[in-house]
Each structure stands twice: as C-alpha cells, then as structure tokens.
Amino acid sequence: MGTIWALARKDLKLLVRDRSGLFFAVVFPLLYATFFGYIMSGMSSSDAQVRGIRVVVVNNDDSSESQAFVEELKQDEKFDVLVAQSRVEAEDLVRKGSRSAMIVFPEGFGKTLSNPFVGASEAIELGIDPGRSMQASMIQGLLMEKLMSGFGTLFNDSKRMRSTVADTLSSIQKDPDIEPAFKFLMVPFLKSVDRFYTELPNTQTFAQNGESSTGSSGGFQPFAIERVDVVRASKDENPSNLDSAFQITFPQAIVWGVMGCAASFGISLVTERTNGTLMRLRVAPISWTTILASKALACFIATTLVAAMLIAVGVLIMGIKIHSFLMLLVAILSVSVGFVGIMMLLSVLGRTERSAGGIGWAVLLILGMLGGAMMPLEFMPESLRQFASISPIKWSILALEGAVWRRFTVQEMLLPCGVLLGIGLGCFVLGSRIFRIMGK
Amino acid sequence: MLNFQNISKTYVSICAVDDLTLEIKKGEVFGLLGPNGAGKTTTISMAVGLVDPDRGTIQINGEGSPTDPAVRKGLGVAPQALALYDDLTARENLLLFGRLYGLAGAELHNAVMRVLEFVTLSDRAGDRVGGFSGGMKRRLNLACAIIHEPDITLMDEPTAGVDPQSRNAIFQLVTDLRERGCTVIYTTHYMEEAERLCDRVAIMDQGKVIALDTVDNLIKAHGGQAELTIRTSQNQRVIQTDDPLSDLARLMAGDGSDRPTSFTLDRPSLESVFLNLTGRSLRD
Fold first, then answer.
1. pLDDT (tens digit, 9 = 90+) per residue, B82-94?
2. Over the stretch A400-421, which tens digit does the pLDDT of each residue have?
3. What are the phi and psi torsion angles at A366 (to 5°)?
4. Of A326, B40, B68, B156, which residue is most buried, by most CB within 10 angstroms?
5. Which of A209-213, B201-205, B276-280 has the lowest mean pLDDT?
C-alpha cells in the first residue's frame, strides 16, 4: 500500500508541476462545463426554446397588415429579422450562409391576414439554407405559430369577428365568379358563425374556458408555406446542387479530418522534442527553417490528401455533385494552409506529448464548437455567436460549402479563403517563433 | 581540429561551463570525463551548435562556428538520448539521416549498408527500431552519427544503459573509428571506459577542466601510489609503492615467514585521480 501511495504522490506532483497538464486536468473541464452550461441554459429558457434565428424577409405585399406583421416578427425574440429589398438579395444572403432562412410574403398576404375567409393568398415561400436543414421544420413551425397567433386574437374578439364575417358574407354574395356550390356551403356557414359570436357573452368567457389566445386553430389553415430550395431556385441552369445530405456532411467531415491531422502533427513536433530526434535534426547541416518547413509541408500534404480522399469517396461512392472542382481545390488548399498554421501553434502549447495532445484537442474542440461544427450557430446565444468568426472552422466549412453547393463566385470565395490563409500564416509565424525559443 | 577558447555557459544562476579552453587533435579519441552535472553535455551541445556559448569561441577545422549549418557537415553526433524514430526501420532511419547530410542515390545506399555492417545490424535492417533491444538501439544511434563519415564524431555517454555485450561492441566501434582516422570525442562518467579507449582525457568538475593529459600521465601525476597487499603465513600488510613489480620480486626473494603466500595489487585509476583532485568520488 505504501508503494502505491508513493507512486500516486509522485504522479500528483508531476501533474502539479506540469502547468499545461494541470490546465487540461482542471481548467479545461471547468471551461467546458461553463461553455456548455451557458449554451444549454440559453436553449431551455422558459417560453422561448430558440432565440434569434437569423432570417431575411421579403415583403411583396404593400398592405399595412403585412408591414405590421413583419414588424411583429422583428419584435419576436425567436427571430433575428433582416428585411431585404428583393428576393435575389435575400437568396444571396441565405446562399452565402449569412442568414439561415428566407421568408417571402406574397402579394395579398395582408388581405389574408386581416380576413382569413376571403381565400388564401399565394403560398409564403420559405427558403432554408441547406446547411441548416436540421432547423427547417423548426423555422416553419415557428412561422406558422406566429401567423396563427394573429387569428387567435381575431377569434377571441367577437366584435371584430362579426364585422369580418359580415364583410366576407357580403363579398361572397356579390362576387359573380364564385362557384354556386361554394356559395351554397359558405353562406350558411358564415351565418352560423355570426350567430355564434352574437350569442357569445364576451371574449373573457372564451379565454377562461381554456382556449389559448395564441393556440392552434385546429385544421383551419388559411396560409400555405412552401419550402423552396434557395440555391436551386436561383440557378436553374444546373439543378444538380444539394441532391443529398452528403453535400453538407462531407465538407464538415473534411474539417474534422483536417483538425485530426493538425492535432497529430502538432503532437509529433512535441514528440520529436521529447524523444531527442529534433536535437538530431538540429545538429544536422540544416536550418531551423528547413526543419519547420518540412513539418509544415508534411502537414499540408496530409491535410490535402485527407480532404481529397474524402471528396473522392463523396463523389465516387456517395454521388456528391461538386459545383466547381477548381474552387474546391482552392478551398481545400486554403483550409490546409490554415490548419498547418494552427498545427504549428498547437505544437507549442504543451511541453509533453500528453499535455500537447490534450490541450491541442481542447483548443480544436472549442474552435469546432464556436465554428458550428458541433451544433448550429443559431442554437448559440448571440453573444457567443459573434465569436464564431474567430474560428477557422467556420471559414473552412463556408469555403468548402461554397465550392460544393453554395455556388460561390470567385469574389465570394475570397473572404473565407483569405481569412484561412491569414490565420495559417499568422499562426505559423507565431508558433514557429515560440517553438524556436523553446528549443534553445 | 576542434578548438574551444574560453567558453562559458550559464543557465539562470547555474554555471554549466566555466572558461573552458580545449584543443582536440585530429585522429585522437578524446575523453570528456566527469560526474553528472559536470558540464560535459553542455560542452558537447556547444560543440555541435545546439547551444550558443555566453562567452568564448568554438572553431571546427578553422572553418568557423558550429552554429553555421555548413560547418556542422563534418560532425557526427550520437546523443545520449536514443534519437531514433521507433516506427521506422533501421534502414529507413539511416536513409533519413544520410539524406540530411547530403548523401543520395547509390552513395547513400552504400553508406547505409556499410554502417549497418559496421554496427552488426545488417540482418535487422528491415525491422522497426521500436522492437530493438537497448544495445541495438545504441549501435544504430551511433550508425546514424557516422553514416556520412564525419571528421569528428561526438558520443555522449554511448554506453548508458546497455548490457556488457553491447558495451564491448561499442568499444570495438570506437576503436575501429580511431583506426580509420576519425576524431572521437567521448563523454562518460565511467573511468574504466576512458582508460580503455581514450588517448587523452579531460576531467571536468563543476564546469571546469581540472586535469587534461593522457591517461597514463594523469594517473602518474594525480593517481597516487599503487597498493600492494601481501599475505604471508602469519599476517597481511599493505605496501604503497610506485613500482609494485620490483617490490614484489624483492619480497619473493626473501625467505621464512616474510615470504608472501599471495598478493593483490590495486593500481591507481582515473577514479583515484578524480578523488585526489576533488576530494570526493566520481559517483558521489
């Protein structure tokens, strides 16, 4: 027992004396718990499970009712609304990943809002970023809930309801284009509705009987929501985009693969240092630059090959269609450069292989979380979402998606690729300087 | 060949090497001896350009400092830590290090075969190093240092942690290198190794060279007298002597109870040189 305790005490001492190891053992779990706790608490707040879904709205209806509805949507904390002037602008924002969804209110939408019995307007178009397809049903549900909540208010106001019914009855009776069979059904129905609201004492009774003012309106569906494919809708000449979910999952898989490569090479540099092989390299007639450049090159080749292999599997086996192979090559090379720099920085985070591995993965996982590789950015609180742009994961996914299915133009590819190249070069210069200092 | 001129190196508050001046001649096996912490590894590290001295200069073949990669081409280093890639084979390790020193093509492959044979690992050339014994790794470590046939080979504690058989093999390798005209700098804290292998020895302690000469001269100058222990039929006595053979012959020529029945001779060694110079044992 004494021997076991002596060995255990020795290991505890070693841990306490290894600052990076101590960080991974104590500080990182704290950060991790805090981070997830923050996210989860944001997701489960009492009356709004989701906040700030980034949508862009196009209102093709000039009516005051539709404008009021858009304003109401803006006030709803579940949505973060941007109003676009045109459908093209809105599609572009979704395609680039700036907004999760596009909502197009058709002409006549306001009329339907004010009077549901005059007949539904054209369908409301909902264009979801294919990369956020997981959220599509949720966004559609929230939008429908918002639309129907207006009717809940109307149904609870007997005076307004009777006026609406009277207007509708009058317009149906006067309209010569309405089928007689439809008139035959609707006129007695609307009269019975009018009678019902005449006999109803007041709205309070209605509400007290357990009917929610914003609840569901049963099978009554005055609005149709039609899902549209943002990318395909705008580029009909090649309807091959986003034919399968693999087009979304493969870019993300590439990023995970590249992260794995960066972590492995970062750790291998530490292994070289601890095993003495780095010393042997340094006494050879080669410079520091050669040593680090060779490691960077190896990492670059490995990450590029991993990405190429995944793409090959995706294309040849899963049948993924690529928008532009040339742009994909540019994206992959940019991602590789970015992660070579990150690898260099990871290699100086720990003095031992264990601590370097632990810290390296911890950093990558945090970047992955911030960059949306683990959960959609929309599920994060706004304050955290703002940090997504510091994560190379976000830019990597965006660059790869831009080449695979987002149909980015060359100009649109410049931003994510430029950011990745900047991150790569910056991290490499910083990491190699620290590495040299540590090696002296 | 290799000149250290007034070299000093301090780590934080510890003076690892203090005003060291040495000249190592071409073709000699030069021993750098001293206890752990004496400054041997720091001296070697400065000699190969890994560490910059705080003061002083180091010149190799009069060509310049070892911090210049071109100057390092004439050096071979077998570090104390086994600096090998365990997941590569012996041949792959040698190919890699050979390439770093500018070897290529047939010249490289011939060099690999030559050093594998030299360290008697030809039959294990295709095996991964991770499966090698400690002694085999030591030999391969040395092979990696000499694949480019350097003018100077530095060996830092090359027998640390190896079995007697492998140690003897390494001794033979050092002897062979000397016969080929290679200059060898050999650091160890085993005095018997230095006595057996080295032409000249510098004894270091606390960062300074406290003695420098051939092994025989060091022993003569600082080792003290030999101890001849004589046992007769009646007693046992110890004689301190500079010439044990003459003393023994004189005693054997005697008769009666003083005639030795057996004897043992303890000759002075580098260990006793160190003891006499510093007042403590090498392994203290």
1. 889 888 899 999 9
2. 989 988 888 899 999 999 999 9
3. -65, -45
4. B40
5. A209-213
Given the structure tokens 């046939």, which residue do they identify?
A: B149
The tokens for A436 are: 């040299």
A-chain residue closest to B98, CA distance: A284
Q: Which distant-in-sequence residues (6+ apart) come within 8 Å of A166 by Cβ?
A: A194
Report the DSSP pairing between strands A79-83 and A53-59. Answer: parallel
Contact status of A17 with chain B (Cβ, < 8 Å): no
Using the beta-carbon criterion (under 8 Å), do B48 and A283 form an inter-chain contact? yes
Residues in chain A: 440
* ipTM at complex level: 0.84
Banded model confidence at residue A121, pLDDT cuts 50, 70, 90: low
Min CA distance, B69 vs chain A (Å)? 4
Chain A hits for B102, CB-CB cut-off 8 Å, are 285
What is the distance between the alpha carbons of residues A133 and A130, in angstroms, rounded to a whole number?
5
Gap between the Cα atoms of B284 and B276, Å rounded: 14
What is the spatial distance between Cα A312 and Cα A325, in angstroms, rounded to a whole number?
11
Contacts of B82 in chain A (CB under 8 A): 275-276
Cβ partners under 8 Å of residue A197, min gap 6: A158, A161, A162, A165
H or E element that contains A92: helix A87-95
- The letter for the amino acid at B58 is I
Interchain contact, A276 vs B69, CB within 8 Å: no
What pLDDT score does A95 carry? 82
Cα B177 to the center of its chain, rounded Å: 13
Q: How far apart are CA A36 and CA A34, in angstroms?
A: 6
Q: Output phi, psi for A170, to 5 deg.
A: -60, -45
* Overall pTM surpassing 0.90 (yes/no): no
Task: Write out the two tokens for B169.
Answer: 């093999």
- Higher-pLDDT residue of A171, B42: B42
